[in-house]
Design goal:
The structure is a single chain. The chain has helices at about 15-35, 45-65, 70-105, 115-140, 145-180, 185-190, 195-220, 230-250, 255-260, 265-275. With about 280 residues, the chain is mainly alpha-helical. It has one domain: Rhopdopsin 7-helix transmembrane proteins, CATH 1.20.1070. Helix 3 (about 70-105) packs antiparallel against helix 7 (about 195-220). The longest helix has about 35 residues, at about 145-180.
Length: about 280
C-alpha cells in the first residue's frame, strides 16, 4: 500500500470544470421542467444530475491539489460519480411503467405494471447500496486486502446494475414488439407518442449500460489497470455518456407522458420510491 496513489495521472482541472458547468446547465433545465410540469416522479433523475455536479466539483478540487492530493475530494468525486447513474436508472424504469399504464396495455408486458417498477428499482437500490458500501471500504482502506474487497463489492454492485438493465431492456423490447403487432397501434400512436419515448428509453438505457460495463472492467482491472491509468477514459465512457443521458431527457422530457396519466400513478411512483430506500439516503428512514 505504500506505493498506492489516489490518481495514476494528474487530473485535468479544465476538463472537470467544463463538465461540472455542463451538468449544472442540464440540471437547471431539469429543475425547471420538473417544477413547471409537476413531474415529481422524475426527482431521482435530478438527484443524479446533482451528484454529477458535486462529483466534478470535487474533481476540480483534487486537480488543484496535484500532486499532493488529499483523501476527501478524491472520495467525494469517486462516490458521487459512481452512484449518480443509479438515480438516472430509477427514473428510466418508471418511464416504462408509465407508458404501459398510459396505453392500458398491461397484457402486452412480461411483468405486471404493479410489479415492474418495484422490481427494477429494488434491483437499482441493491446496486446502489453495494456500490456505496464498496466505496466506503475504499475510502477507509489501509491494506491491500481492504482495497481489493472494496473493488470486489463495487464490481458486484455494477454487475447487478448491468443485469437489471439487460433484463429491463428485454422486457421493454418484448412490450414494444407486442404493441406494434396490435392492429390499433397506429391509432394509439396518433394520440400518445409512445414509440418516441420507447426509443428515448432505449437510448438512455444503452448509455447507462455502456457506462456501467466500462466501470465493471475498470474496477476489475484495479488501480494498476490500464483504464485507471488514463484520465481520458473517465470522460469518454462516463462523463460524456452521462451528460448525453441528461441532455436526452432535457430534449424529450417524459412530463408529456405525465399530462396523460393520473395522479394515482404519480402517488404510486413516489410511495414506491420511499418504500424501496431512496428516502433513506442522508440518514432518514
Amino acid at each position: 500500500m505504500s506505493s498506492y496513489k489516489l490518481y495514476n495521472y494528474d487530473p485535468s482541472q479544465s476538463a472537470a470544470t467544463a463538465f461540472a458547468i455542463m451538468f449544472a446547465f442540464t440540471a437547471a433545465g431539469h429543475v425547471f421542467q420538473l417544477f413547471w410540469n409537476r413531474a415529481w416522479f422524475f426527482i431521482p433523475f435530478l438527484i443524479g444530475s446533482i451528484f454529477e455536479i458535486i462529483g466534478y466539483i470535487a474533481r476540480v478540487a483534487s486537480a488543484k491539489q496535484t500532486p499532493n492530493w488529499t483523501t476527501m475530494p478524491y472520495v467525494i468525486q469517486e462516490l458521487f460519480l459512481l452512484l449518480a447513474p443509479s438515480f438516472f436508472a430509477a427514473s428510466i424504469y418508471m418511464i416504462l411503467g408509465r407508458i404501459i399504464r398510459l396505453l392500458h396495455a398491461e397484457s402486452n408486458s412480461l411483468i405486471r405494471t404493479t410489479w415492474l417498477t418495484k422490481i427494477f428499482v429494488t434491483g437499482d437500490v441493491v446496486s446502489f447500496l453495494m456500490q456505496s458500501g464498496g466505496g466506503g471500504i475504499l475510502a477507509t482502506a489501509k491494506t491491500e486486502s481492504s482495497l481489493n474487497l472494496g473493488n470486489y463489492i463495487i464490481v458486484a454492485g455494477l454487475i447487478v446494475q448491468v443485469i437489471s438493465f439487460t433484463i429491463f431492456i428485454t422486457v421493454s423490447i418484448v412490450f414494444h414488439r407486442r404493441m406494434l403487432s396490435t392492429p390499433l397501434h397506429h391509432l394509439v400512436q396518433s394520440k400518445v407518442p409512445w414509440t418516441r419515448y420507447m426509443k428515448v428509453l432505449y437510448i438512455g438505457s444503452a448509455l447507462i449500460l455502456v457506462r456501467s460495463a466500462y466501470r465493471v472492467v475498470e474496477y476489475i482491472q484495479g488501480s494498476s489497470g490500464y483504464l485507471q491509468s488514463k484520465e481520458c477514459f473517465v470522460y469518454i465512457f462516463d462523463a460524456t455518456l452521462m451528460l448525453l443521458c441528461c441532455l436526452l431527457f432535457n430534449a424529450f422530457h417524459p412530463s408529456k407522458l405525465l399530462s396523460k396519466s393520473s395522479s394515482v400513478d404519480e402517488r404510486e411512483d413516489l410511495e414506491m420510491m420511499n418504500q424501496d430506500g431512496y428516502k433513506s439516503f442522508g440518514g432518514r428512514t
